[in-house]
Specification:
Structural class: alpha/beta
Strand content: 15-25%
Largest sheet: 7 strands, mixed
Low-confidence stretches: none
CATH architecture of the largest domain: 2-Layer Sandwich
Number of helices: 7
Helix content: 40-55%
Distance between the termini: 41 Å
Number of domains: 2
Radius of gyration: 17 Å
CATH class of the largest domain: Alpha Beta
Mean pLDDT: 96
Number of strands: 7
Order of helices and strands: HEHEHEEEEEHHHH
CATH topology of the largest domain: Beta Polymerase, domain 2
Length: 184
């Protein structure tokens, strides 16, 4: 797989490149967080980082693949490519959970013969609403709205409602529905 244009690649392009190489080295991972929002909103939202949760956390193995791709570890837990100043990578430990929901079954796509995984639009909405319910993050709520607008056919609103109810955030779901109805 060819490297992306480092100076202006999108979250999706960088994920395809890095995820494809990780998968080729036997390191499965799931893309979560804001980069998934960027993908599901088709670039209306920009994240700035990619959070990849590896199936089995082996820092040396992950770092070996990343160094081979030109990434360098920062003093913190991030990895940066010297030619890509607008995006960086992070590898939070798993498992992938959304609030109290576990396990989370991610979507899969095929990229040049390899399966890459990311949160579904429905799970991405729940993930963003978790930030709103538990930390009162209005930015997370607005990201959930953007996903619902861009992926309306692919977001299972009944599943989101049930999840919000279990999380103690039914009011957040009701606000989401009102917001979407106002924009219709």
């Amino acid at each position: 797989m060819n490297a992306p244009d480092w100076t202006r690649c999108t979250e999706e392009e960088l994920w395809h490149y890095v995820g494809w190489h990780l998968e080729g080295a036997g390191i499965g991972s799931v893309l979560v967080g804001g980069a998934v929002v960027a993908i599901h909103t088709e670039g209306l939202y920009r994240s700035g980082d990619l959070d990849l949760v590896p199936d089995h956390f082996d820092r040396k193995q992950i770092e070996g693949v990343l160094r081979g791709l030109g990434f360098e570890p920062s003093k913190s837990r991030y990895y940066r490519h010297p030619q890509c100043s607008h995006l960086f990578l992070e590898f939070p430990r798993g498992p992938v959970e959304i609030g109290e929901e576990f396990p989370v079954v991610p979507d899969e796509i095929e990229v040049m013969g390899r399966r890459l995984r990311l949160l579904s639009p429905t799970d991405s909405v729940k993930d963003r609403l978790a930030g709103y319910i538990h930390w009162n993050s209005r930015a997370n709520f607005e990201q959930a709205v953007l996903i619902c607008r861009r992926q309306s056919v692919r977001v299972d609103m009944e599943q989101v409602r049930r999840w919000c109810e279990r999380e103690g955030g039914l009011e957040a779901f009701e606000e989401l529905v009102r917001n979407l109805d106002q924009q219709s």
